[in-house]
Amino acid sequence: MLSRTADHLFWMARYIERAENTARMLDVNMSTSLLPQSAEEAELGWRAMLGISELEAAFDAKYPLLSAAEVLDFMVRDPTNPSSIHSCMHAARENARAVRGSLTTEVWETHNDTWLQLQAKLAGGLVERDPQELFEWVKYRSHVSRGVTIGTMLKDEAFFFIRLGTFLERADNAARILDVKFHDSGDGQELLPAGRGNGIGHKQRDFYYWAAVLRSVSAFEVYRKVYRDVITPERVAELLILREAMPRSLAACVNEVCANLEMVRNSRSGEAERRAGLLRAELRYGRIEDILQRGLHGYLTGFLERIADLGGRISQDFLVPLSAN
Amino acid sequence: MNTAFDEMYTAAGAARPHYRGYETWLDGKSQETMANKRAEADLVFRRVGITFAVYGEAAGTERLIPFDVIPRIIPAAEWQQLEAGLRQRVRALNMFLHDVYHGQDIIRAGKVPAEQVFRNSQYRPEMHGIDVTGGIYAHIAGIDIVRAGAGEYYVLEDNLRVPSGVSYMLENRKMMMRLFPDLFARNMVAPVAHYPDVLLDNLRSVAPQGVTDPVVVVLTPGMYNSAYFEHAFLAQQMGVELVEGQDLFVQDDAVFMRTTRGPQRIDVIYRRVDDDFLDPLVFRADSTLGVPGLLAAYRAGRVTLANAIGTGVADDKSIYPYVPEMIDFYLGERPLLPNVPTYKCRNRDEMEAALAKLPELVVKEVHNAGGYGMLVGPAATRAEIEEFRAKILGDPANFIAQPTLALSTCPTYVESGIAPRHIDLRPYVLSGRQISIVPGGLTRVALRQGSLVVNSSQGGGTKDTWVLER
Questions:
Q1: Which residue, of A94, A103, A176, B110, has the fewest CB within 10 Å?
Q2: What CA–CA distance (Å, rounded) separates B140 from B271?
Q3: Does residue B395 fall inside a structural domain?
Q4: Number of inter-chain CB pairs under 8 A, A vs B
Q5: What tens digit of pLDDT does each residue of A127-162 get?
Q6: How much is the pLDDT for B458?
């Protein structure tokens, strides 16, 4: 297929996945900010979220103060923030429009309809009234777009590039969600940062925090089912990093990246495949004790770099128009 | 202006025979039902993304073309005559184009003035002597037809470059079948949905010689072009790649597209990019929409362009008055579809005759399309008329004038209810190994009361067009 078409498909999928994960991240922060805590702590929570998305500077340049309402405004509806839900859904729709001929009618209409509905919801004040309902809706629309893709598209290159975009983006975002808590914790050596201020006890707070992280990736019930035990940070990390059966774990995402990469393989993509395969092997045969020993934050930072490297290689090998020779 | 011919009602106010069934059906529908259906149509068009961009507005602005739910109905016998006339006309036009770029017999015979051809900005000397597959230049032609007087059909304009609108013909039908399935059960409406199939077959039939399984693509200027929806739609319906200039390159006189698996050779380009932008090495050097070297590959016979380069010389308004001559010259036949009588302002006596009754005439710039640069005398102010008089005197050859036809009307939903509005018709004629016409076309409607300008860029709407099978 055309390189340019593949590029649009890849980014269409990445943007809708990013919108979903932004909604998930905001959702977990909304939930934890409802716990009894000082204003300072609440601010730290939002800052960590902006930091992990590499948006702190952009936010500070625009807003003098930080509060939940402003972060929501910035992350949901701000068209100048390229990672806002608004921007992501718009970009997904524009990429879809650029290649609507390569999509089934249903896939195109889903993206177009999502974009039209989002505008109506924002205009109708849903962010202010009930942000969590908006987050649910964003997740739902992302589910729909994946479902329609799987249910209607021919399993050919177009499909594989869409899937590649979905899972590369999800791998990146899942690692970031997991890393939020460590973003401001300095050395990152400790799994659990020291609790701050007064309020409920550390242990209990940690329970709520990790429960919220699990919920944000739809893994709370899964956790119970897998471990049949109390929530511990080590197990949360294991579930979200190493469990291949868990659809939003890093291992599951990298498996899908490898599988789809293999399907579109060309004469230049050997090195990208090798690196993706190496990452998959590490996740498949890795142990959570070793990862924690090394430090979770350090591990996740390294993982994000490798995902970014893979994204760059996929662009070079497939998506940038190949020269005449 | 005299009362226009109405498609649905006789002067006495009775429904014409071919509209009787529809009238009965419509009488049985409440206003509320119809209002709901119209709202549903708007919603669906927006969700499906059947939009067009308006030049002059912010990039990315998308609008809907208003869709009217009352169909324009053409009886079977009338369509047969139309179809015969269209075939004849497009055959002659293709023969004219071949002649212009080869022996120029018609010019030497004195039927068409030489300077009308050679000094026409649409004449492409680069095309001289190139043999295109099957001698076909205008593979896709959109012929604009109007009805006037007591219902006579006239050809108003030929569109032989990159005629658009066929996607609306298809989508309007789809919408009507969705909104009113019962109507189609009781009327014998000729289907149109196979158009993309016929188009693909037509494009494959004109592949360069020796190519047995041609790769066809649609070339678009990109997603900000006003007709982008149509380009994407046709590519998708035909199952071929939709490419932009940047996706293509020329090597050893062959055209390739850049794919995820390396270069792939292509054979037929259904191009929706104007001549001027096709090849920056030959035409406009600043064009980023085209493919450097494309003309060289074309000259070498390694790729087919549909439509061919240089077809504009045959659809120009200054050439239009000579089409009946072409039909006589090449086919030895009398035109089955008449032209609108036209004053060619380049002839002094015709110009003077036109200037004498400017307030009654429609004046058109010969190179403009889309309803731009024209004067509708009866609707114009004195100042506008004088402005055009000065323009004509300044450059007579740039203008033609025609009587203001009382275009036929068709009942149409407007704010105050249902009222007659002026319409035209654009059927699409496909030429390749044979000529094919899908029964129907795009009916455009001028939504403003009294307006004769049906172009979507000027506030026109569209209707579904029914050709009855009996």
A1: B110
A2: 11
A3: no
A4: 71
A5: 889 999 999 999 999 999 999 999 999 999 999 999
A6: 72
Domain that holds residue B288: 17-340+405-467
Q: Where are the beta strands (DSSP E) in B332-459?
A: 343-344, 361-365, 374-376, 399-403, 409-414, 417-426, 428-431, 435-437, 442-446
Using an 8 Å CB-CB cutoff, list chain A residues near B257: 2
* Cβ-based contacts of B233 with chain A (< 8 Å): 101
**Could you tell me if B262 lies within 8 Å of chain A, comparing CB atoms?**
yes
B27 assigned to some structural domain:
yes
Residue of B nearest to A6 (CA): B260
pLDDT tens digits, A174-217: 999 888 766 544 443 344 443 433 344 566 767 888 888 898 89
Nearest Cα to Cα of residue A122 among A156, A91, A86, A93: A86
Beta strands B216-219 and B268-271, pairing class? parallel
Return the DSSP state at B280: T
The pLDDT of residue A146:
97
Segment A302-313, tens digit of pLDDT: 999 999 999 999
Q: Please name the residue of chain A whose CA is at the shortest distance from the CA of residue B48.
A: A109
Contact B399, B364 (CB under 8 A): yes
Q: Please, is B130 exposed, middle or buried when counting C-beta atoms within 10 Å of its C-beta (0-12, 13-18, 19+)? A: middle
Structural domain contains residue B100 = yes
Cross-chain residue pair A101–B244, CB shorter than 8 Å: no
Amino acid at site B463: K
pLDDT for res A75: 95
The interface residues of chain B toward chain A in range 236-255, judged by CB-CB distance below 8 A, are 236, 241-244, 246-247, 249, 251
Do B47 and A99 count as a contact with CB atoms less than 8 A apart? no
Identify the residue among B47, B260, B264 best suited for mutation to test binding to A, counting A beta carbons within 10 A and taking the highest.
Answer: B260
Asked if the model's pLDDT at residue A49 lies above 70, the reply is yes
Find the farthest-apart pair of alpha carbons in chain B and give their distance in angstroms, rounded. 68
Tell me the chain A residues in contact with residue B241 when contact means C-beta distances shorter than 8 Å.
1-2, 5
Contact A3 B259 (CB under 8 A): yes
Closest CA to B77 of B142, B21, B17, B10: B17
Are A260 and A312 in contact, with CB atoms under 8 Å apart?
no
Of B49, B218, B235, the CB nearest to A108: B49
Half-sphere exposure of B242 (CA within 13 A, CB side): 26
By the 8 A CB rule, do B229 and B49 touch? yes
**Cα–Cα distance, B422 to B406 (Å, whole number):** 8
Tokens at B307, concatenated: 């439509």
Question: pLDDT (tens digit, 9 = 90+) per residue, B11-66?
Answer: 999 999 999 999 999 999 999 999 999 999 999 988 888 877 665 555 556 778 89
Going from the C-alpha of B80 to that of each of A154, B8, B74, B163, B293, the distances in angstroms are 41, 19, 10, 23, 43
Give pTM, 2 decimals: 0.87
- How far away is chain A from the Cα of B343, in angstroms, using its nearest Cα? 44
What average pLDDT is seen over chain B?
Answer: 92
A16-43: per-residue pLDDT in tens? 999 999 999 898 888 877 777 777 777 8
Q: Tell me phi and psi for residue B219, to 5 degrees.
A: -100, 120
Please give the Cα distance from A187 to A183 (Å, whole number).
Answer: 10
The residue among B458, B460, B378, B457 whose CA lies nearest residue B421 is B460
Lowest mean pLDDT among A114-118, A198-202, B5-9: A198-202
